C-alpha cells in the first residue's frame, strides 16, 4: 500500500501522532509525492482503507472524510469517500512525512500551507503556534477537546518559512507567507496562542498590532537583587519583541484547589496540610517570579482567564501594556493606542476573542464575524 494523506486528514494524523505517541515529527523521514497504490488490493475501497495503518491512527476517518494527494488526474482515487488534491508541480521534494507501512501524510509545513486555503487568518496563526509549539490539540475536537502539553514541536517558524519559499504556484501560498510572519516559536499552551494571536494580528484584522512576539524565552534575572532562593532564569509567557514588556498567563488550573477540596472532603488532615503547603509554595513562587523579573528591568503583566473572557478587560490590559512599551522602548505603538482610544471595533474584537476561546459558543461568534466581514 502507498497512500498520501493531506488536508484536514493530515492535520488529524499530525495531532494524533503528537498527542498519543508524544512523537517528534522532526525526526520522521521526508519524502516526495508519488502515485497511490492499494496493493495487494486491486482498488481503493472502504474495506481496503479500514485495513490500512490509517484506520489504526484515525478510526473516525470515514465519518470525517479522507483527503488524499495525487500527482496527476489519472491517479485520483475513484472512491466516493476520497477528496483528491492534485499537485502536478510546485511542491518541494520533502513535502510529506513517512509514517510507516506505506502511509504518508502532508508535512507540518505543507499542512500549514493547505490550511491557509481553509482557515481564517486568526485560526491559521493559532495553528502555526500549535505546530511550532509544545502543545497539540485533540484530533476529534480541536476546540474543546483535551490539549496535550509538553510535546515536541512539529516544526518551526524558520522551517515553514523555508518550505514556503521553495513552493511555486500553490493556492494559498500568499496567505500562508503572510501568516507565518505572525507566528512565533515555542507556545506552551492553547490559551497562550489565543492571547498571542490577538496581540500580533494587525489592528485592521481586529488585533492589537503589537507583534512580533517572543514566547517562553528565558530571562536571566539579576541575582544580586533577586531573592536568595530565587531562580537564575525566569520565563515570561509572552514578551513584545524589542521591549522589556510582557505577559504571564495564569489560567484556571494555575492555582488548583481541587487537591485541597478532596483532602477536606475526606477529612485527611495530612493530605490537607500537604495540599495547602503546595498551593502556598506556588503562590510564593509566582510572587518571587514577578519580583525577580521586575528588578531585572522587565515589566510583566499577569493575565487571568477572566481578563481574556470578560468584555473589554483585555483592552484595558493592552492599554497598560502600550503605556509601558512607550515608557521603556522605542517601539512605535501609535496604531494600537489609536485603536484603543477610538473603541470603534471594540465589540468586533471581543467577538474575535470569544471565537478563539475554548468554549461552546465560540462557533457562534466565529459565524457572526464571518457574516460581518
Protein architecture, described:
This protein is an alpha/beta fold. Helix content is 44%, strand content 13%. It contains 16 helices and 14 strands. The protein has helices spanning 7-21, 46-50, 53-57, 61-64, 108-115, 121-131, 157-166, 173-180, 190-200, 258-265, 269-295, 305-309, 313-328, 334-342, 346-356, 362-372, and strands spanning 3-5, 30-31, 66-70, 82-86, 96-100, 103-106, 135-136, 148-149, 213-215, 219-220, 233-234, 238-240, 245-250, 299-304. Strands 1-6-5-2 form a four-stranded mixed beta sheet. A four-stranded mixed beta sheet has the order 9-12-13-14, sandwiched between helices. A two-stranded parallel sheet has the order 3-4. 36% of the residues are buried. The mean pLDDT is 90.
Question: Quick summary of this structure?
Answer:
This protein has 373 residues and is of the alpha/beta class. The protein contains 16 helices and 14 strands. A hairpin with a 4-residue loop joins strand 12 and strand 13 (245-250).
Outline the secondary-structure elements.
Elements: E1 3-5, H1 7-21, E2 30-31, H2 46-50, H3 53-57, H4 61-64, E3 66-70, E4 82-86, E5 96-100, E6 103-106, H5 108-115, H6 121-131, E7 135-136, E8 148-149, H7 157-166, H8 173-180, H9 190-200, E9 213-215, E10 219-220, E11 233-234, E12 238-240, E13 245-250, H10 258-265, H11 269-295, E14 299-304, H12 305-309, H13 313-328, H14 334-342, H15 346-356, H16 362-372
Parallel strand pairs: 1-6, 3-4, 13-14
Antiparallel strand pairs: 2-5, 5-6, 7-8, 9-12, 10-11, 12-13
Helix pairs in contact: 1-5, 5-7, 5-8, 6-8, 6-9, 7-8, 10-11, 15-16
Amino acid at each position: 500500500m502507498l497512500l498520501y494523506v493531506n488536508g484536514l486528514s493530515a492535520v488529524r494524523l499530525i495531532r494524533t501522532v503528537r498527542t498519543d505517541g508524544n512523537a517528534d515529527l522532526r525526526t520522521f523521514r521526508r519524502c516526495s509525492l508519488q502515485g497511490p497504490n492499494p496493493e495487494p488490493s486491486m482498488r481503493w475501497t472502504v474495506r481496503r482503507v479500514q485495513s490500512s495503518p490509517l484506520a489504526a491512527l484515525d478510526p473516525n476517518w470515514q465519518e470525517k472524510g479522507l483527503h488524499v494527494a495525487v500527482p496527476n488526474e489519472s491517479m485520483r482515487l475513484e472512491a466516493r469517500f476520497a477528496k483528491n488534491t492534485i499537485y502536478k508541480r510546485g511542491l518541494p521534494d520533502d513535502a510529506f512525512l513517512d509514517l510507516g507501512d506505506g502511509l504518508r501524510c502532508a508535512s507540518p509545513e505543507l499542512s500549514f500551507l493547505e490550511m491557509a486555503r481553509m482557515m481564517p487568518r486568526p485560526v491559521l496563526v493559532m495553528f502555526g503556534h500549535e505546530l511550532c509549539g509544545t502543545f497539540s490539540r485533540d484530533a476529534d475536537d480541536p476546540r474543546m477537546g483535551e490539549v496535550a502539553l509538553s510535546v515536541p514541536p512539529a516544526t518551526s517558524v524558520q522551517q515553514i518559512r523555508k518550505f514556503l519559499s521553495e513552493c511555486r504556484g500553490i493556492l494559498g501560498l500568499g496567505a500562508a507567507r503572510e501568516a507565518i510572519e505572525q507566528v512565533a516559536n515555542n507556545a506552551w499552551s492553547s490559551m497562550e496562542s489565543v492571547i498571542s494571536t490577538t496581540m500580533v494580528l494587525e489592528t485592521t484584522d481586529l488585533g492589537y498590532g503589537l507583534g512580533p512576539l517572543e514566547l517562553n524565552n528565558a530571562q536571566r534575572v539579576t541575582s544580586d537583587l533577586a531573592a536568595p532562593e530565587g531562580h537564575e532564569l525566569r520565563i515570561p509567557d509572552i514578551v513584545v519583541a524589542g521591549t522589556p514588556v510582557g505577559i504571564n498567563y495564569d489560567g484556571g488550573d494555575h492555582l488548583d484547589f481541587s487537591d485541597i477540596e478532596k483532602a477536606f472532603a475526606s477529612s485527611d488532615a495530612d493530605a490537607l496540610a500537604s495540599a495547602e503547603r503546595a498551593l502556598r509554595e506556588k503562590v510564593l513562587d509566582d510572587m518571587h517570579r514577578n519580583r525577580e523579573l521586575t528588578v531585572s528591568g522587565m515589566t510583566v503583566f499577569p493575565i487571568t482567564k477572566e481578563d481574556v473572557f470578560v468584555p473589554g478587560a483585555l483592552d484595558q490590559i493592552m492599554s497598560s501594556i502600550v503605556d509601558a512599551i512607550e515608557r521603556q522602548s522605542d517601539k512605535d505603538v501609535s496604531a494600537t493606542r489609536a485603536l484603543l482610544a477610538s473603541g470603534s471595533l471594540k465589540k468586533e474584537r471581543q467577538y474575535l476573542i470569544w471565537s478563539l476561546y475554548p468554549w461552546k459558543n465560540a462557533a457562534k461568534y466565529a459565524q457572526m464575524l464571518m457574516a460581518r466581514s
